[in-house]
Design a protein that fits this description.
Elements (H helix, E strand, L loop, with lengths): L2 E3 L2 E15 L13 E7 L2 E5 L10 E10 L5 E9 L5 E10 L11 E4 L12 E12 L5 E13 L10 E9 L2 E6 L10 E14 L11 H5 L2 E8 L8 E9 L8 E7 L16 E13 L6 H8 L11 H8 L3 H14 L3 H15 L12 H13 L1 H18 L16 H20 L7 H17 L6 H20 L13 H17 L13 H7 L4 H15 L15 E10 L11 E9 L2 E5 L9 E4 L5 E4 L10 E5 L4 E5 L3 H14 L9 E2 L4 E2 L2 E2 L13 E2 L14 H14 L1 H12 L1 H4 L15 H32 L12 H17 L1
Helix pairs in contact: 3-4, 4-6, 4-15, 5-6, 5-9, 6-10, 7-8, 8-11, 9-10, 10-11, 16-18
Length: about 850
């Protein structure tokens, strides 16, 4: 989901690794320890929660989280909660990183001090305010100056304890005076429309003294300010809750008698000072990305240059290979390259070309594809994208069983717990290994076609290069499918969407042992027992009939790497795509039934969308076939005064659903849209609001069957696995080339130097693989030219935006520090260009 800015799509995403906390305050009791978890929040909206780490003041989480950010935000916040014996959650502290500060910490582990949390620090939302100064002549002929403060509306106020009934107080503050007035309370909304005007006397009536029209003594203005406070009306005896404030000095009216602007609410200045309380610290690694994507034609030169990489001879002289050479990490280049080639259906010839080149450079068949090369990273990324649902249907049931039953599987005698039996543990572990091995080796028919085509190419290249090694055609494939696909998914199921969180220590140890064994069974190495460093693992491996397992592996590898192999109808069995609790509104199936809201467990497969009362329920309360989903769209918040709602439109009725947060809502909308995209009866228009009280709130039509009033959002490809934005991926590739421009220039120098042509002083440029200097130099010139064209387009876009954007507008309210930074940077650029 992108934010549109005059034809430019802006994408925001964040990738976070929550490491650990340390030195948290102890519990005020004899136990001292705490049961802690961490949440990730956009401002105050929770979008992710770690597992609970019990009985620790230095909890280790080690959890990863990625999301596309569907809206603007001010802070990326992390809260540490403690769950006490009564299962009540209390906030221990937080880390709040301003959006504009995120690049400072990009992709590096950083310890952040925890901050105290109270109402004065928890602020979000913005206010539209108009100030007007006027001169009034009274009946007696004297002049006074009056201020009109008009509070128009607010947006994005926080919801406190599940409700928001906001009101505003407006106070004129001056020397020895304070005059306050209050708006009406607006019920059940965090986007209140006030439009109330309050009048204040700025100067006392006095005789006309020849001052020019609207002129006031500067001292009168400089000593006064307007303060607007937002409050949430509470029924509790503790009083109303503070939501934020803003202060405006009246000197803003010197130049004009009218001032109209949006303001970001700010925390209250309560005058507290002194040394902050030590609440411990939290280790985080945050990567925030913001892409400004132009229309497709802007990217044609660079995109065409990259896409023809598979046809370039040698492939090391291609644009894609150059990107892999200059990037600090190969994966950095592999991610956008793979997605772009997949989008245009050219991933197999590209990977075949770079894999064949790598095989020809390999001297020992035992080291084939063992390094972290561009080839291995590209294949890894392709398997993660194309094979995610293959993993779901193959491994998820048994992984769930392992995580839920906690059978003891420790086989290291040193680590055995009291009461555990080594032989029983070995039997438990072998049982799990056998189950996983069997589901893997019998899953060949479900392996995605694109993976099979790549494996066929690897097999052929390896067999041709090492003709004297009969097993290399297997090891070339097993090094990916077992070593880099199944084994990592078993080891860290949370990273492959098989589990929501990193498993507990005991389960993690079990999965580690299973992963090691599966990796060895699938490797077909000549001496498997010797491949284990631990003697207990070598002893455990003796439990397996080596020939039996080797035959099963070879049969599986033959199937997934055969020429012309295609998926069969069995892939059409139901595949679980997404599930989770959400709130749904009753669909009104009964004539007099109540249309209330209830919490339900939703499940989406490639066949149907269902909900039931609980996760463990056997029978769905409602089942919607995919072919009956005509559209999936956001629902305007004002329909039910509820955030994060969307609608699943069916032929007869519409299902209204509330997700837990904005990220979850986007995920559900995306996946439902993808899976239903092939429906021939999909709607072209829809109603963005609900049908309530006899009419549609959006267009006021009185018939419930009235056609929609708004075009449906753009369609997506019908492939539920791979929905890729080619222009966005090309923009990411451009950004990488732009970031590493100095490396490309070094590579150009290497191509033109004698060290490349005659071999002298080779070490100076040994970091680059340059097989054909002339062809590589030609490619580098084309890349740099395409990148510079896009650089100019981005620079022009920034100049245009700077000229057109008004500070104080709804999009860039006063107090938006990221926009203030942007203005300062653009001012410096403009001054430099002059």
């Amino acid at each position: 989901m992108a934010v549109e800015e005059e034809g430019i799509r802006v994408f925001q995403s964040v990738r976070i690794k929550i490491g650990e906390a340390k030195n948290l305050p102890s519990y005020p009791g004899p136990n001292k320890m705490r049961d802690c978890y961490c949440t990730v929040n956009l401002d105050q909206e929770e979008v992710f929660r770690t597992k609970i780490v019990e009985k620790s003041l230095c909890p280790f989480y080690g959890e990863d989280f990625y999301c596309e950010i569907p809206r603007n935000f001010r802070h990326l916040s992390f809260y540490i909660f403690d769950r006490d014996v009564f299962r009540r959650d209390s906030i221990m502290g937080k880390v709040a990183i301003l959006k504009e500060d995120l690049p400072k910490y990009n992709n590096r582990d950083t310890w952040f001090q925890m901050q105290h949390v109270d109402a004065d620090s928890e602020v979000q939302g913005k206010v539209h305010l108009e100030l007007r100064l006027s001169e009034v002549i009274t009946d007696t002929g004297v002049i006074c100056h009056k201020l009109a403060a008009r509070v128009l509306e607010c947006q994005g106020l926080p919801i406190v304890n599940g409700q928001c009934d906001p009101y505003a107080t407006v106070t004129l503050i001056g020397p020895s005076r304070s005059e306050a007035k209050k708006t009406k309370v607006r019920k059940k909304t965090n986007n209140p429309q006030f439009d109330e005007v309050f009048y204040f006397e700025v100067t006392k009536p006095s005789s006309y003294n020849k001052k020019s029209h609207f002129e006031i003594e500067e001292d009168d203005v400089d000593k006064m300010e307007i303060r607007v406070d937002l409050w949430n009306a509470s029924n509790l005896k503790f009083g109303d809750e503070f939501l934020g404030e803003l202060k405006i000095p009246l000197k803003v009216l010197r130049q004009s008698n009218c001032y109209d602007a949006w303001y970001l609410l700010q925390p209250r200045d309560n005058g507290k000072s002194g040394k902050p309380e030590d609440l411990g610290s939290l280790r985080l690694n945050v990567v925030y990305t913001e892409d400004h994507v132009f229309s497709s034609d802007y990217y044609s030169p660079l995109r065409d240059l990259v896409l023809k990489s598979g046809d370039v001879e040698p492939v090391s002289a291609s644009a894609a290979h150059v990107l892999g050479e200059i990037c600090r990490e190969k994966q950095e280049a592999a991610i956008p390259l793979v997605r772009l080639f997949l989008h245009y259906g050219k991933i197999v010839p590209f990977i075949s070309a770079i894999a064949n080149a790598e095989v020809n450079r390999t001297q020992d068949p035992n080291t084939i594809f063992r390094g972290n090369s561009l080839t291995s990273k590209c294949i890894d990324e392709t398997m993660k994208l194309a094979g995610m649902h293959y993993l779901q249907v193959t491994l998820k049931p048994i992984i769930d069983e392992i995580c839920e039953f906690h059978k003891p599987c420790e086989i290291d005698p040193v680590k055995l717990k009291d009461g555990e039996n080594l032989e029983n543990n070995k039997e438990n572990l072998k049982s799990y290994v056998d189950q996983i091995f069997n589901v893997i080796t019998k899953s060949g028919v479900r392996c995605p076609t694109v993976m099979c085509d790549i494996f066929f190419s690897l097999r052929e290249s390896a067999a041709k290069r090492f003709q004297d090694d009969p097993d290399v055609r297997y090891t070339a494939v097993s090094s990916f499918i077992f070593l880099r696909f199944f084994a990592p998914a078993i080891l860290s199921p949370n990273l492959f969407q098989l589990r929501p969180h990193h498993p507990d220590p005991q389960t993690s140890r079990t999965l580690t042992l299973i992963s090691k064994t599966i990796q060895t069974l699938g490797s077909l190495s000549k001496s498997k027992s010797a491949s284990f460093k631990e003697t207990y693992m070598a002893a455990f491996y003796d439990y397996f009939n080596e020939q039996k397992y080797a035959d099963a592996v070879k049969n599986f590898l033959d199937l997934i790497s055969s020429s012309g192999r295609r998926d069969h109808k069995s892939i059409e069995q139901p595949i679980l795509l997404k599930e989770g609790f959400m709130i749904k509104r009753a669909q009104g199936r009964k004539r007099f039934g109540m249309k209330n809201f209830k919490k339900r467990w939703f499940r989406l497969t490639n066949h149907e969308f269902t909900y039931q009362k609980s996760k463990a329920g056997d029978h769905p309360l409602c089942s919607i076939p995919i072919e009956n989903i005509l559209a999936v769209e956001k629902l305007e918040e004002e329909s039910f005064k509820m955030k994060n709602m969307f609608q699943v439109i069916q032929p007869v009725r519409t299902l209204y659903i509330q997700a837990n947060n904005c990220v979850e809502a986007k995920d559900w909308i995306d996946i439902l849209t993808k899976v239903s995209q092939c429906n021939k009866k999909r709607l072209a228009v829809y109603h963005p609001s609900a049908f309530l009280n006899g009419h549609w709130l959006c267009c006021k039509a009185t018939s419930e069957n009235a056609p929609g009033c708004t075009p449906c959002t753009g369609g997506l490809p019908a492939n539920i696995q791979l929905v890729i934005d080619g222009d966005r991926e090309t923009e990411r590739i451009y950004s990488l080339f732009n970031t590493y421009m100095s490396k490309m220039e070094e590579m150009q120098e290497a191509c033109g130097s004698k060290s490349v042509y005659v071999g002298s002083d080779q070490e100076e440029y040994s970091c680059f693989l340059i097989e054909d200097p002339r062809e590589t130099y030609k490619t580098l010139c084309q890349i740099i030219e395409a990148v510079k064209q896009l650089q100019e387009e981005h620079a022009q876009y920034k100049r245009d935006k700077f000229e057109k954007t008004k500070y104080g507008s709804q999009q860039h309210p006063i107090g938006d520090k990221s926009f203030q930074t942007y203005i300062r940077q653009q001012s410096e650029v403009s001054a430099h260009s002059i």
